[in-house]
Amino acid sequence: MSTGFFGDIKPVKYEGPDSDNPPAYRFYNPDEVVMGKRMEDHLRFSVAYWHSFAWPGGDPFGGQTFERPWFGDSMEHARLKADVAFEMFTLLGVPFYCFHDADVRPEDATFAESAARLDEIAEVFAAKQRETGVKLLWGTANLFSHRRFMAGAATNPDPDVFAYAAATVKKCIDVTKTLGGQNYVLWGGREGYETLLNTDLKHEQEQAGRFLSMVVDYKHRIGFDGTILIEPKPQEPTKHQYDYDVATVYGFLKKFGLEKEVKVNIEQGHAILAGHSFEHELALAAALDIFGSIDMNRNDYQSGWDTDQFPNNVPEMALAYYQVLQAGGFTTGGTNFDAKLRRQSLDPQDLLIAHVGGMDCCARGLKAAAKMIEDKALSGPLEERYAGWNSAEAQAMLKSERTLEQIAERVVKEGIEPKPRSGRQEYLENIVNRYV
């Protein structure tokens, strides 16, 4: 049933590249087969509840600009928000959504009362999932907005805050499991420090390791089949966060023996803030066997902070989905639009058009990436560059069948004098441009 918020807008359909209809897909055709799989099943699009329905349009220099009929602190407002959210999911035809606990229900006076409210809205979600066929990609807990978490959650110097955060995550995992969520994400929004003058790094790292170990143990005890994900981010809001990037997260997981239990949810904007490209973080996660899911957005490269804009750069998306496909594609993960409107984009239609444009951009990137893989446009030159390692002697070195002395002796005996070879970077960049 229509809420009336989106007016008379009809469900968004694929109309092809020549369409001039703003709420229409030009490149995202969910049933188009790409590399033997439907496009919808490759991309696994998800809408983020927080940015689309909970964010009021504020920024560090100004307050609310959006006026939404569901803004308020009552459960009636929460139910209206759910009505509008699932209406939008249906209009867009997305298969998934994601949420924090604080996005979907107002906080009450006590933890128990807030948990009861989350259960109440979960019943609403369950009914809407049955009605629409939309599924939960992942759930998570907001452990950063409330003032109790100003010094962190799992890494807070106050053990009572650690306990409150643990109880919150337990409750959110329970709800995620009940709703059939395919993943559970831990984003350490304030798991870091502002100054070392009041921070015990070793103590806080041990706290974070214990917290995550308990989460993994609980997952197995209750039979939750989803994937536990950590979302790396280098800074903002804290000066330095402990989950800085994929490499840092992997080192943390190795230290606590969790590298086989936990994977990463990588956000494009966070990768840039860490000084990396998105494709670097994706490739590294795949190489370390911890690739799980992605949060799709982009930053304004002039502002230097996490602006969470909708993606519109097709070459960037092509390189990103190239790495996703090379990693074998998504299993439980997907493409979650952790993106928000600009604070001047006030109209209901803006919310739909932003997602439509982002989905089209991702679809174009996916198709370009798939074509590059099918043509071996990048893998062919890469194989050629490393072809020397296929020789028997090179394999012997790689497999620890030669000592340092034996290798040095062969270099002298055979008079080996390597000649540098071109990396052909510009040639490869030109190849990418031909596909986008």
TrEMBL record:
Alphabetically ordered keywords of this record: Carbohydrate metabolism, Cytoplasm, Isomerase, Magnesium, Metal-binding, Xylose metabolism
Cofactor requirement: Mg(2+)
One BP annotation, GO: D-xylose metabolic process
The Xylose isomerase-like TIM barrel domain, residue ranges: 118-282
Cofactor-binding details, from the entry: Binds 2 magnesium ions per subunit.
EC number: 5.3.1.5
MF-aspect GO terms: magnesium ion binding; xylose isomerase activity
Binding positions for Mg(2+) 2 per the UniProt entry: 267, 270, 306, 308
Pfam families: AP_endonuc_2
Binding sites annotated in the UniProt record for Mg(2+) 1: 231, 267, 295, 338
Catalytic activity, reaction form: alpha-D-xylose = alpha-D-xylulofuranose
GO CC annotations on file: cytoplasm
Residue runs in coiled coils: none
Record-annotated active site: 100, 103
Cited HAMAP family: Xylose_isom_A
Family (UniProt): Belongs to the xylose isomerase family.
Subunit structure, as described in the record: Homotetramer.
Name the record gives this protein: Xylose isomerase
Organism from which the protein derives: Pseudaminobacter soli
Lineage: Bacteria, Pseudomonadati, Pseudomonadota, Alphaproteobacteria, Hyphomicrobiales
Gene that specifies this protein: xylA
